[in-house]
Write a structure and sequence with these properties.
Blueprint lengths: L18 E5 L4 H12 L3 E5 L2 H10 L4 E5 L7 H9 L9 E6 L3 H9 L4 E5 L3 H18 L1
Parallel strand pairs: 1-2, 1-3, 3-4, 4-5
Length: about 140
């Protein structure tokens, strides 16, 4: 594991593991993300579409959400707006996964409440670095 992107840099003595809700259609990308994020020490909550993500959010409050911009059912941007309107969920950072060099998706990510974006195809080291950065920012804001 690349220790520069380890969640344990947040607090080496902490036993708390940040939770990441990963919303992507059932594909190799979802499996790759879940395996890579989990191997870095995060708790991963997978959701195959917007409906599953909303179900998860009824019972859990993840520390961060990784969301496919083209998520099935509702769509990633609409889902983000919905999450941002939910009591107790509006402060959760959302990182969008967008198609490489798709400027419209990048702009829509920020216009719809996203905190950051990751280009597809995803690269696990980049995903981990961006997750860690957003979690540290959120912790420092408290």
């Amino acid at each position: 594991m690349n220790t520069r992107t380890s969640i344990f840099e947040i607090s080496p003595s902490s036993t708390i593991r940040p939770a990441v809700l990963v919303v992507d259609d059932p594909s190799d990308t979802l499996s790759l993300l879940c395996e890579g994020i989990s191997a870095a020490g995060y708790i991963v909550i997978p959701a195959k579409n917007s409906d599953e993500a909303l179900e998860c959010l009824e019972f859990a409050t993840p520390d961060i959400i990784l969301l496919d911009a083209t998520s099935p059912n509702v769509g990633g941007f609409a889902l983000c707006r919905r999450i941002k309107s939910m009591p107790g969920r509006s402060e959760i950072p959302i990182l969008f996964m967008v198609e490489l060099a798709n400027n419209d998706q990048i702009i829509n990510s920020f216009e719809n409440g996203g905190s950051d974006y990751i280009s597809k195809p995803v690269r696990i080291p980049e995903v981990l670095a961006r997750l860690l950065t957003r979690i540290v920012i959120r912790l420092n804001a408290r």
